[in-house]
Sequence to fold (184 residues):
Amino acid sequence: MPEMGCKLSGLLILLMFWCIADCKDLTLQSVVGDVVADNFTYFTLGYDGPISLILDSLEGDADLYISQFLLHPSYNTSEYCLHSATCGQDRVDIPSSFQRPIGVGVYGHVLHPSTTFQLTVVLRDEFGQMQEGFETLLDSDYLEMKRVGGTGNSGYRIPQSEEQSVFSSMLWTFLEILLEVLFA
Fold:
């Protein structure tokens, strides 16, 4: 039985180190919106630093187009710098060297009459130290929402539950695993 305790504490230590090592990024903002088929919904991104944009298609299929030169990028190759067009989660890593503001276009795939999406802005901590002053980023609204094309109300909303940082979600996951192991 003492061997089980050593294995359990070793596992808990490994989980703790994994949690700490994986909690370098910071979720800055998350927006839920809608886009109709064959149209774009545009955002202007003003956050500094290395940013990741994560697009989850909650219903339908949306694609992500990014430009440092145009505020309204499209799927024409001359009008975007980065893009992700998958059937699942779309992710684009924007380097800190990109000029701000950055144009972000969310395109609703033509096969779906309407697409509901969630766009999450993550500040990547590439060197193990968060940029100074990131607290001010959290207090500001750096992601402006604009709708171009389509009809009806877009219904943008920032889900309160999604505004937590990666660190806090990893901490909760770690605590849940710990409680499950201890009381199972």
Notes: Strands lie at 26-36, 40-45, 51-59, 62-67, 82-84, 90-94, 102-108, 114-123, 143-148.
